[in-house]
């Protein structure tokens, strides 16, 4: 009976309800307004432009309608397969490792011990540092000619000669993933840490009484309880990785020989390097569609509790 | 303090009518309990007085002033919530002082009033704690205190005792009643517990399905329930109800059911004749029935279903004509399950209801 | 007004289309003729010649420009340029300040809102700005960029004659870079060619003649190998990053020298319709890179992620022996060495003292270098934020492309686009004070401009570096890499 | 739970933690160490693991108002502070009522609108560069901070609204009712009672907004032309990579740029965890 008091539905149908609630909309208007402003037109423009040929020699006003040709160009290009594969590798592994490290860190930090706050703070720093700065820091560490990592590995006898990561087709993507995970695992950690604090002690104690060891308590009690948080974290990371631009762009520009090119760097390259906004738009639309599929699950996960509350 | 008057108050949610044309008047200084099962509209009614909900129709007047369209803050009422609604980030002192601060009461006066209320409620030692550091009973007192400090025209209480354990509830019940007597305040008290209403209230407003069923003193509600619903709702254990047909048998009027018949006293017979048809419902409190272990004239044959000793009294559940009656007995009596018994009705305390309208049939 | 513009636009398009078909055949002829007319002959344009003509004439810029725009003209102008930045030598900052002061004195009533933008950001910013009709009135752009805007008709037509100068006074290569579809879209402000610099100290260490530059690219490869083997230091400062302008600036001279090309830009009469990428010449050049990077490992491993800027520090730190460098490199290095502290300073000064300038090595076919510089353009009124103030634009452009300021603004880093500048006293002063200026200047006639077509940035900054990366990572063989690039360029020309 | 018995899981946990700490912190240490080296000392191979002749020249150069670089840098710093602060304040001002309404009110379309807010994160920044620029131009906002603030607002909003809604869902509606009976207006009830209770959430969303705005690079690069208006990430990029890659300088600048946000975050991190716990995870 504790219904919030402006919530009475009306018998007057949708319009009537909207009128009844007209003042409620005022609260969300600024947020929605600014969102629409920044999103609506760009989405429309991107879709629109994806059906036009826009060679660099033509002004935008002279673009030529060419139906789905841009989509065919994107999907049929030599590099599409490699770039898509790179994107999958980049996104999946970045997400996976960020999650695993974040989960491990959260489990360790969930115990009370001296200096816990300090440790948590130190582990969180990479999350706060700008991606631009992080890219430069790691590029400097990885540097083939002057980098500290190569020197240390050489001293340890793990490599002979120069360490070649960023200029090496096989190593570049894993190396970038290491940087990305470095920046992202603290986010996973903090999310999971928050989730862990809601695991009821009674449940763990009950499991302990039932004779479950640490691993079984984790597997049968903690993990199921974390499911919601983990899903949300994975989705957020996934989306973020799919969209991540700065680290690959500043560190390698997608090179060498396209070995670290992912969708989003490709799109930027096509748009601003090759000045083909039509093709770039078609590419973006393809990315959108993938995002929408993921987004469906994302929104579902984010608002899962919403459904329960509303009824 | 003031009188509160409800005049044909209606509250609709879409096509659903939560409160249906309710009218009653709470006199100045009265303690009125709004009672009924959950979903009956009692909390809605309370929220209408508080201004937390807007009326669909009718009027509410406090001290003669119509308050329908006033903001809650301008109605000069205080409210105690079921979950206390103490401000978790404020200390007890700040919680108590908050209503005064909002009314711009001078600081010195504010402190005085807060201290007075704290003394009255015996929570002076808790003043600098925060709500989460208090026990349920202490929180309850703070919530009460927050209502008291302001000296409002009307106190509204929404099931204030329902979150307390049984023992504390009894104690607080007494305290609340005492406060009411001391302050002589107008209180409107919502509860689903008819015992609470019976014990504390000057008057009870029994509601069901958004309709005010009866508004009267607890004694009258208990003794003369207006209808079948009130009869079944008020009193514990509930009144035993038995459908019957009225049969005229050569001047003598009898109520008859499946395998039983009961001759009605002249007074009851007169009542029965007022029924719209020949169907009536007999109502009898557990204490107005007498159990015989041997057949006796004017009794109805029955069988013991089970026996519940409670110490003071023993309740016998008895199967009569497909229904189960509860009858209170002297705890000294030894009765067994499945034992055949005979029930005698105290005709002076028998209630008759029209089976169609479910309304009470007034005595002849 | 709007209607009129639209109509004009459509007219232009018609004319442009008509010209487009014929331009391939007709255009090169007058350009070649121009080259003869100015009489600049690579053989005679020696360091001695450059010295001999300097200081012969004097100029009165205000007087020359007053004929075009009266000195009391009132107006307002937005101007974007790539000017001196934090890393530039102090002298360049001073020259620009002097320029703005002189302009303000000559045209006191023209208000100029000048934005000095970074080289790396400017192209993208300008593209978005032009597309959003927020372009400045006037912009000075690096030589490769203008053709894209010209092709889109986002520029106004502009030739030296519009501001009172003679097209023949500008370098033919430079004029090629502002010509598209038979029309002229800008005026060269400054031009330069790169030179080859080396560290004599490291040469000595490696047992090479410290004062003799490698004369051919073959020698560069051999020297690089010898330096790596003898000293452990990197020989040649190879760069092959994608999307970095300085990759083609350093690679194309080798391609042209070996007889190859991207399109036919190295031809006597280029048509920009043929591809030369899948040729023996180009393959030889890629093979040279391959030999240095993969076979000999005599160049920085980080070459594929490096840009030229990342070679400066190693060079100055005595870790790198040879680079292709901008004429201003000496001044920049000197400036930075003098700003170093402690033991760094000593080491850096020693390197600066050991710095030697030479001509770019030649290949099997010829000696070639990229013809670089900047041009100034006026944007199309349709693409501008507000109204175009044509008179104010002309005043600014006249002032800056005249002999005086095209020399002074190019003081440390370049050479005047207006060749009359070579005869001024300021040129003489420069030659007297700037080390190696005569050497880098003498390369100008060997300069080949990048193809002035809209696709140029894509070819030079993406396709060519990708070709290099494909070969250097051994993803493809040299033959496959050039064939792959050929295919990509061909599909561009086919109008993809 | 609290038995202090050392199991192999504890040992494993500690080893893991040490590994993680090395992974997280060493790059930062190397940034600091490099920033105190001279330009040439940084180009030694193998590198010195600590600066042999530590120098603060890069810091002096960046922070001293005596020279051009320092003046420019301080200006960029101020610009960044301004843009981030305005973004943060507006972000909170916009997110709070929206989250409150999504939690408390039951207006039609509420769910769809809530989804649409969350959808923002789906779209990559670089794809929107061109169309957004064109739009900002229409609105006459190119080369103004407004263009950045408007864009940055939308980065933080989805998380802010989601997090705060979780908070409001957990605050009993009776508290507001009590406050209104106690003499508050609807707004006062929100401002005096509900707002303080959601303070951890507000602080957390404010930090998040500030950090994203502070670190943003791509839009700042595109929307701002005026040299005097640049924000730190763009300004730094321009300082250090245009004509020379000065690694110690770049590292020093990265360090200075990180200090404000890192310090802020370390001080307020407990609110962040609390906010996620109470607002997002538990809800």
From TrEMBL, chain A:
Keywords: Cell membrane, Membrane, Transmembrane, Transmembrane helix, Transport. It is found in: Cell membrane. It comes from the Bacteria. The keyword Transmembrane applies. Residues 84-298 form the ABC transmembrane type-1 domain. It is a multi-pass membrane protein. GO terms for biological process: transmembrane transport. The chain crosses the membrane at residues 25-47, 88-109, 121-141, 217-239, 245-265, 277-299. Belongs to the binding-protein-dependent transport system permease family. This is ABC transporter permease subunit. It comes from Halovulum marinum.
From TrEMBL, chain B:
Residues 4-234 form the ABC transporter domain. The keyword Chloroplast does not apply. GO terms for biological process: carbohydrate transport. Keywords: ATP-binding, Nucleotide-binding, Transport. GO terms for cellular component: ATP-binding cassette (ABC) transporter complex, substrate-binding subunit-containing. One of its GO terms (molecular function) is ATP hydrolysis activity. Belongs to the ABC transporter superfamily. NCBIfam families: PRK11650.1. This is sn-glycerol-3-phosphate ABC transporter ATP-binding protein UgpC.
Automatic annotation (TrEMBL), chain C:
Pfam families: SBP_bac_1 (PF01547). It comes from the Bacteria. Its main location: periplasm. Keywords: Signal. The keyword Isomerase does not apply. InterPro entries: Bact_solute-bd_prot1, SBP. It is found in: Periplasm. Residues 1-33 form the signal peptide. GO terms for cellular component: periplasmic space. The keyword rRNA-binding does not apply. Belongs to the bacterial solute-binding protein 1 family. This is Extracellular solute-binding protein. It comes from Halovulum marinum. The lineage of its organism: Bacteria, Pseudomonadati, Pseudomonadota, Alphaproteobacteria, Rhodobacterales.
From TrEMBL, chain D:
InterPro entries: BP-dep_ABC_trans_perm, MetI-like, MetI-like_sf. GO terms for biological process: transmembrane transport. It comes from Halovulum marinum. It is found in: Cell membrane. Residues 77-268 form the ABC transmembrane type-1 domain. Coiled coil: none annotated. Part of the ABC transporter complex MalEFGK involved in maltose/maltodextrin import. Probably responsible for the translocation of the substrate across the membrane. This is Maltose/maltodextrin transport system permease protein MalG.
